Amino acid sequence: MNWKFLVMSSVFAGTTVTLGRLNNRFLRNGLTCQNFLARAFVTHLPVSQNIVRRQRHSINTRLFSTTNSTSSTRTDADRLEKQKQKAAKAAAAKERRRKFIGLAKAVDRGQFATTYQPGGPTGDMFEAKSGLPPRKDDFIVLGIESSCDDTGAAVVRSDGVILGEALASQSHIHEEWGGVVPGLAKTAHEEALDRVIQTALDEAGTTLHDVDAIGVTVGPGLEICLRVGAQRACELAQEYNKPFVGIHHLEAHIMMARLENRELEWPFLSLLVSGGHCQILSCHGVGNYSILGGTLDDSLGECFDKTARLLGLPVGGGGGPAVEALAKEGDPTAIPLTIPLLKRKDCDFSYAGLKTNVRRAAEQLAMERGVESALELSRQDKANIAASFQNIAIVHLEQRLERAMTLVEKQDKAIRTLALVGGVAANQELRSRLNVLCEARGWTMVVPPPRLCTDQGAMAAWAAIERLKLGSSDDPSNQEVYARYPFSMA
Ligand code: KG4
Ligand code: ZN
Fold first, then answer.
1. Which GO terms describe its molecular function (predicted)?
2. Which domains, and CATH codes, for the chain?
3. What is the pLDDT of residue 67?
4. At 323, is the secondary structure helix, strand, or coil?
5. Rounded to 10 degrees, what is the CA torsion of 186, 190, 196, 197?
6. What is the pTM of this model?
7. Ligand 1 neighbours by CB, cut-off 6 Å
8. Distance 464 CA to ligand 1 centre (A)
9. Ligand 1 centroid to 320 CA: how many Å?
10. Which residue in 3, 48, 116, 335 has the fewest CB atoms around it within 10 Å?
């Protein structure tokens, strides 16, 4: 028994020493014979397998490198070639990005066939193509607007007094579709237009015979909708032999700041935030604008509308007001969201990323709360999302705007007035925060009352008045409409 045990022990001990040389970890751990066997079985096998595998690999490598030197050279050349291609690709992508920087949507850089340039290439060669109102102290203009989902008409006097106005909202039509349906909008414009024009004239106590000119929005906007208003206005101008002005919708938004504040002198800075656009413009005169920054993807209004849809809020006529109302009940710091374009030191905007950011955050919260979707979140959760989105959306505006302000403060004719215009300018939180920002920098902010920030007929009438005062009108017999109608950057 004893000698058997001795033999077994020495075999085990021998194995221990041999294997221990291979892997002295076993000995360092102070293994006993019995548990060494068990451990050796588990540990030793893979270790030795690894050693074998490593050795085989090194032999292969040696073989490969000594007997196959030509293919090794080829591999090196291939690798070098691949690296070169990769570098060239990266350089091309960088160049594309460089070109894209500042190439905001709808900014004319020579790529558009038609641009808005009523003053010609020099910006001051205005032409009265269909005559001007009779020379008298004040003249009155009928304005018509049908670029999107509101049919608007107004009669405005040349001193800026709105004599009569009417607006047919289509919100009840688009509500059930979750956004504007162009075909339905066109039909609704056709049905409402004559009635709206008549109501505005009646309220002003005038008739088509007595108005001195007609202005109508001709772009940018939904083409089939623009056509409804423009066609009617061209017919009326020709039938009643009135001077006619084809209105640029964004210029009309900007001009509302001059209607609000008749002392507002050129040049001034404009922040235009609407359903289709998001731009910072240096405004030098009628038809004379330089765009300092624009959105690279979505507009701010679009982002408000999508957030409203995500949260199941009313979206007919734009979701912005509903998001703003709900945000008042929420905590703007509750949901962490990323400020867009932090690394880009220019004046452009981007809202597509924030839109996705909000959707993902809402989905995540829905998962945490154990509900199917963001639509089923509690009112408080939804309010927190609305408030956090609105806050970051405004922070992004503030950052870009401050950069633009710094730029124009240094110009020869320093600008120190901001016109906040467009549908989103109706947002109270935005108005008060930008007002604080302006005051802190010694700037003045001009913003139309909320109902004149969103689309309506008075904007077309007033923009026409501004053009007519400069001796500028268009020909109603060949007026086109333009879905895209950028300001000329000539
Ligand atoms: O200028 P507008 O009436 O139409 C376009 O020219 O696009 O702007 C409509 C946009 C919509 O996206 C709407 O949701 C947004 O303006 N909006 C608002 C508010 N009122 C309208 N966004 C945020 N807060 C508001 N109070
Ligand atoms: Zn608008």
1. DNA binding; endonuclease activity; metal ion binding; tRNA N(6)-L-threonylcarbamoyladenine synthase activity
2. 3-69 (no CATH), 268-452 (3.30.420.40)
3. 40
4. helix
5. 110
6. 0.81
7. 148, 274-276, 301, 304-305, 318-321, 324, 422-424, 426-427, 454-455
8. 22
9. 6
10. 3
